[in-house]
Amino acid sequence: MMAMLGPAEIRDLAELLGVTPTKKLGQNFVIDANTVRRIVKAGGVRAGEHVVEIGPGLGSLTLGLLEAGASVTAVEIDGRLAEQLPKTVELMQPGAALTVVHEDALRVDALDGDPVRLVANLPYNVSVPVLLHFLEHFPSLQSGVVMVQAEVGHRLAAAPGSKVYGSPSVKAAWYGDWRLAGNVSRQVFWPVPNVDSVLVAFERRTDQLGTEDERLATFALVDAAFQQRRKMLRQSLSSVFGDSARASTALEAGGVPPTERGEQLTVHDFLRVARDGWSEGA
Ligand code: SAM
């Protein structure tokens, strides 16, 4: 019995379930076993590990993770797909260690066991919020690899000063280091999406950057800074601190020139302003 899903199996399964892939749920299914194995390899998945997959869909990647010997918890919002997945797995890899959670991934904040890796072909419309949500709620997650829209992947992996550096870049950096791990052809999906995809890998940082209050304060600054990314920080942060004079005081307390723009600041810079500037400027 073949252990992976190809184009014919994916279409047959969709037809069997009466599933017409929806754009709203970002349903573009991988139909290429080589791509699946590439993702599993890029994720560094080892036998016996507990891996969480978000959006297993018809099961292409799930089967790849199980083939590598991982035990998989798969979180799927679509009831028809969540119900079918254990049956598909039982047919193709009997006895494999799979738990399916039928839920919106954004609402999941506890799972049985502590997953150490996150591997997913993420639904494009919610990829960043879902990623940040899981990193926040599952400190056991040490590393992972996700397939996302190319533009989003470049943002996640961007360094300060880059044109695409933005709020997702800084927030992702709060949790760890991110790097691009390769391009993925549109042709490996059904239906073929109208955007390019990339793989992005992350490793969680070993040191916790700050407390929960400091994280919230830092993220509030990041949001304000990038809402008006072309403005100097003393202006873009004026609404947060009350006015631009107070914003300047806060920035200086954090060691950041008030005339700087958000796109120049590392996550550490934002954190210093949140930590040292809040009491000064607010
Ligand atoms: N992993 C499968 C693959 O590679 O073929 C499917 C990937 S498809 C890009 C995204 C999957 O995420 C779909 O199965 C979709 O139903 C599911 N999904 C969308 N939004 C979700 C959410 N908020 N929580 C959990 N799953 C979601």
Automatic annotation (TrEMBL):
Q: What is this protein called?
A: Ribosomal RNA small subunit methyltransferase A
Name the enzyme's class.
Answer: transferase
Question: What does this protein's UniProt record list under function?
Answer: Specifically dimethylates two adjacent adenosines (A1518 and A1519) in the loop of a conserved hairpin near the 3'-end of 16S rRNA in the 30S particle. May play a critical role in biogenesis of 30S subunits.
State the superkingdom. Bacteria
Which Gene3D superfamilies does the record cross-reference, listed alphabetically?
A: Ribosomal RNA adenine dimethylase-like, domain 2, Vaccinia Virus protein VP39
Catalytic activity entry: adenosine(1518)/adenosine(1519) in 16S rRNA + 4 S-adenosyl-L-methionine = N(6)-dimethyladenosine(1518)/N(6)-dimethyladenosine(1519) in 16S rRNA + 4 S-adenosyl-L-homocysteine + 4 H(+)
In the record, the note on similarity to other proteins reads: Belongs to the class I-like SAM-binding methyltransferase superfamily. rRNA adenine N(6)-methyltransferase family. RsmA subfamily.
Instruction: Tell me, in one coarse class, where this protein mainly resides.
Output: cytoplasm
Task: Tell me which species this is from.
Answer: Orlajensenia flava
**Which InterPro entries does this one have?**
KsgA/Erm, rRNA_Ade_diMease-like_C, rRNA_Ade_Mease_Trfase_CS, rRNA_Ade_methylase_Trfase_N, rRNA_adenine_dimethylase, SAM-dependent_MTases_sf
Which subcellular locations apply to this protein? Cytoplasm
Under SUPFAM superfamilies, the record lists:
S-adenosyl-L-methionine-dependent methyltransferases
Give the GO cellular component terms, alphabetically: cytosol
What GO molecular function annotations does the UniProt record carry, in alphabetical order? 16S rRNA (adenine(1518)-N(6)/adenine(1519)-N(6))-dimethyltransferase activity; RNA binding
Domain Ribosomal RNA adenine methylase transferase N-terminal positions: 35-206
Q: What UniProt keywords apply to this chain's record, in alphabetical order?
A: Cytoplasm, Methyltransferase, RNA-binding, rRNA processing, S-adenosyl-L-methionine, Transferase
According to its UniProt record, the EC number is 2.1.1.182
Q: Which residues bind S-adenosyl-L-methionine?
A: 28, 30, 55, 76, 104, 121
